[in-house]
Amino acid sequence: MTFSKAWREFGHHLFSAKGCATRSEYNWVVIPVMLVFILLAVVGFIMLGHYALIIPGLFMIGIDIILAILIMIFGFCLLARRYHDVGSSKWNALMIFIPTLRYLDLIYMMVIPPDPERNRKYQN
């Protein structure tokens, strides 16, 4: 799956936990979003370190917090679809709301292969 197709699929199923998300779709969405999130956090904290940039730094941190909330909402739906793809319960996606497990779970879902038997049943 290409980058643009993965983002189109993600956009079409933004609020839906039904269906499957392939490993490539998941990776093409999660990796860029995580990089932007990290970049905003780093820039915000660097700005907070300079006295003249405290207000813009707080603004960047505010954007980071809003982005984190959106990532958790949309990420839950994407993660639930990815859990369906690997043959696990969609309810496991609730781990995204547990801070320490969130990152481990996101990384784990990047590497685990899909369940071909489950996907064959889903496609028929």
Tell me the number of structural domains: 1
Mean pLDDT: 78
Stretches where pLDDT falls below 50 for ≥5 residues? none
Number of strands: 0
Shape: elongated
What do these coordinates show?
This is DUF805 domain-containing protein. The chain crosses the membrane at residues 26-48, 54-79, 91-112. One of its GO terms (cellular component) is plasma membrane. With 124 residues, this protein is mainly alpha-helical. It has one domain (29-123). It is built from five helices and no strands. The protein has helices at residues 3-12, 23-48, 54-86, 99-111, 116-123. α1 (3-12) crosses α2, α2 (23-48) runs antiparallel to α3 (54-86) and α2 packs across α4. The model has no long low-confidence stretch (mean pLDDT 78).
Secondary-structure map with pairings?
Blueprint: H1 3-12, H2 23-48, H3 54-86, H4 99-111, H5 116-123
Helix pairs in contact: 1-2, 2-3, 2-4
Which labels suit this protein?
mainly alpha; 5 helices; about 75% helix; single chain; about 120 residues
Summarize the structure.
The chain has one domain. It is 73% helix and 0% strand.
